[in-house]
Design brief:
18 helices, elongated, disordered C terminus, 37% helix, eight-stranded parallel sheet, alpha/beta
Length: 526
Amino acid sequence: MPRQRRPNSPFVDRLCAVVAASTAKEAIKQLHEACRYTRTIELRLDWLRSDRERRNFLAALPRHAGKNLTLLATCRRILGGGKLAGGAEAELYWLSQARQVGCEWCDLEIETLRELPGQSARWSPIPPKILLSYHDFERTPPLPRRLLHARSGEADAIKIAARARTISDSLRLLRLAHNSKDIVSVPMGEVGLPARLLALRDGSALAYAPVAEATAPGQIGLREFKHLYRADTITSKTEIYGVAGNPIGHSLSPLLHNTGFIAAKRNAVFLPFLVERLKEFLDVISEFGLRGLSVTLPHKQAIMKYLSDCEPTAEKIGAVNTIIVGKNGKLSGSNTDYLGVLRALEKKLRLRNSRVLIFGAGGSARAAAFALAIAGCEVLICARRESVARELARACGAQAIARKHLETARFEVIVNATPVGMYPHQGTSPLSPRELNCEFVMDLIYRPLRTQLLRIAAKKGIKVISGVEMFLAQGLAQWELWTGKSGPQPAIRRAVMAKLRAEENTSRQEKWQAPLAASMFADFSG
């Protein structure tokens, strides 16, 4: 069961902002930004690009560091995964310089400690409080043995940061901090991200969030950590929800649901789970404290066999995207994807008797096919594997159509239910211009806002429907299932659309800058 965060941490604020920049000027700028969120700040001196920049930064630090800050100096060597070129002497020198300008804490790698006379750092003029750190960027090692080795009396707190390659790895790291106020537990990597966000709830003395660029795999930026996930306020009473899939980095479900929880003033958080082995994940969801789960590719069908109960429409579809976790740990499944498809299309046209092509035959395609068949559409299924298309067509009372016939076929609506064109591979389209003979094209992909498929369709004069409409509708339906209440739709829509439009503007700017840069280079070269 999830544990309550404990008092008596050696740090006043357990959220540690990470200042990491190549120049002193940028580091000072990050320091001011960090002070808006927390009073505990790590200064990554090794990220500064030269000794000169380190001197300039430390010289300016007393003028810019506010009162009541806990400053933790780190100057990690390349050997320990940092950027400082040099030996233990160089690291200790810069840590001693940091002490002279007010740093009370320092992060000292266990590799450095082993190189010192007597394996002791207490004689050195470094900051008086030592966070002894062990890093493994490749795997999660046998932790109790590593922890005992680190407990040498040379540290005021101990940090174990390791790459979590499985969900079980991340839980092993979290458990380290349960019974000790001076352990900093840091699960690294995308698999470890949910545990990183829950670290303070589970007792870690610190959790790190960078002001700007990430300094370790799987980090969440300071602003997101504090304002979107509110990870420093999660307690045992906080409701935990999440999305499980692979890949998961593209998902905007955390933005959708966390925005909703914030707007509704609900003590809940929504986390992204990169799940490779579904059963392993389901075996440990009670330890995370999960109360509800959104399911995405590739687990929408596979999860069916683990359900204790399934809503009839979802059972008929043969795929679920929404799970309610009962108090007894049993899983109940529903499907809100089909509601999302219907609500998005019903706004645009009369569905009954419309001829609709579903391109794809996975979990999302099944939801769309059943939804539109139930709505009275003439549904045709086309997929890369014709046998799978025929199987889905038989299940929902539709027809299968071979891809070679698409150039001569005519539809009211074509729905893309494949992941082709999804962020970050947004430059591809699952269908060619000659295969788009219809009045509407709907892409179930919502990121990017305008996929390559929708761009091709728009150039042909075809009306387009972004997957964001389905995404918002299915997400709000999930909210109702989990909470029993209607979600704050305006706030959620604003946040999601702002994110997608910002990405679209960035993409457009990059495309504009690329030929300009090439032209400038050509002029310079000439």
